[in-house]
Amino acid sequence: METFLKGKKRKATSTPESTRDDDNESTDVKLAIMASLFPDFSQEALLDTLLAHDGSVEAASASLNDRRPEVAKKPRSSRVVGSQTSLKFFATGLPVSGDGVSPKKAKLLSKKGTTLHLYDPDDIAQHTPCSIIHNFLPPDEAKELLLEMLEESKSFEKITFKLFDNVVSSPHTSTFYVETEEELNKQRYEYFYNGARLTDVRKITPQLLRVKPRVQRCVNEEIQKRIKTQYPDGKKLKYQSPDEWSPNAAFVNCYSGGKENVGYHSDQLTYLGPRAVIGSLSLGVAREFRVRRILPRDVEDSSSEDPDAEGQIAIHLPHNSLLVMHAEMQEEWKHSIAPATAIDPHPIAGNRRINVTYRDYRPSLQPKFTPRCNCGIPAVLKVVQKKKENWGKYFWMCYGGYVPGKENCAFFQWAKFDDDGNPSWDKGRYKKSSGKLGVDPLLRRGQTVDKGTS
Ligand SMILES: O=C(O)CCC(=O)C(=O)O
Ligand SMILES: [Fe+2]
């Protein structure tokens, strides 16, 4: 959702965030601009060119315009079916991370410049921040949802936004669904995404609603499984909500043909809160979902600037698969849907892929409660991802610079959450002393999984 609903503002001023903010997104955002300007080029070719021009989008664009035929001929590494014979090549015998947050049992490291292809649900759960359930819905239910979304997607649009001085558009189409009339009005008139209101918000459809309880039940089970098997001491992560995951919105993406894609990004946490979980259902053409860890670095150390420093992991998303993006995903990893040179047409969807992301919007993070910047619009919630200094700290900042014709202001404010991810203004729940009393939030959680209808 947010590659094209997010990005890095210009770093022109001496605003607090320009000194404190992590600087990690510039390469991704530049890549996103490049991908939008040069949809025919592979991500690899675009990255090569950017690096060769010291990160200057302008110089890289000029060079690509000159060299278009030559660079476009370079083979793309992204295929629907990745070629990899063995996982041994990636085995390191070392844990991926020593931070105690990401899967502690992971023993594979995708190496710089390589793509590790994973298909098996156990491998995916162990080596990525996701879990996957194949053949998730009864086939008829999947088909009906697909048919409904294919019809809906005829009127989906590309999201247009401003980055630097360019107005660019997302390389796929999407729209947003909520459940009630009240939510619809709030989304239309109160919520902001990258400093602008969404132009297309719709009432949830019958099939999206029908599938929801099944997604809810499964995601909650997966969360519990993950906590028990992957997190330190079998406890939920700090800032992760102890409440049942209860989706109340669905963001739906449509990728028409292999060229449509979404660049590397993390989803916006503004309305989902810290350590958000997302249930992502794939229908139609199978595509490659890529993830890569964001490596924190010292301020003075530029050696890990390369966004591909640890390589990437490709998870294959066939028709009717549910991918759960777990609580560590948005803060510590980035994800993308890679362009594909060849796709296997789906008998119903043809060359199209539909992706439904069910999301749990938190009532306490409605824009009427969150800080506003000096532009008068709700600020965006972000986390320091790359700089070791302040790593993992949340902050609010202005996103005005993403609205065509508008500059962003210097607004910056550290965000305060308790250990359960409740914002400081949520007086009923926010616990100042949380974490010090040794109360295990899981004990309060109990069996919260949906008893559901299906
Ligand atoms: O299409 C997908 O599977 C991912 C979409 C996505 O990343 C998003 O909507 O934020
Ligand atoms: Fe996303």
Helix content: 10-25%
What is the chain-wise order of helices and strands? HHHHEHEHEEHEHEEEEEEHEEEEEH
Per CATH, what is the topology?
Answer: Jelly Rolls
CATH superfamily: Alpha-ketoglutarate-dependent dioxygenase AlkB-like
What is the CATH architecture term?
Sandwich
The figure for the number of domains is 1
Q: For this structure, what is the CATH class?
A: Mainly Beta
Total number of β-strand segments?
Answer: 16
Which ligands, by name, code or SMILES, are bound?
2-oxoglutaric acid, fe (ii) ion
Using only C-alpha atoms, the radius of gyration works out to 21 Å
**Unreliable segments of 5+ consecutive residues:** 2-25, 70-83, 91-107, 434-454
- End-to-end separation: 28 Å
Report the biggest beta sheet as strand number plus sense, adding barrel if it closes: 8 strands, mixed
Class from secondary-structure proportions: alpha+beta
- The shape is globular
Please give the count of helices: 10
Q: What is the average of the pLDDT values?
A: 79
- Give the amount of beta strand, in percent: 15-25%
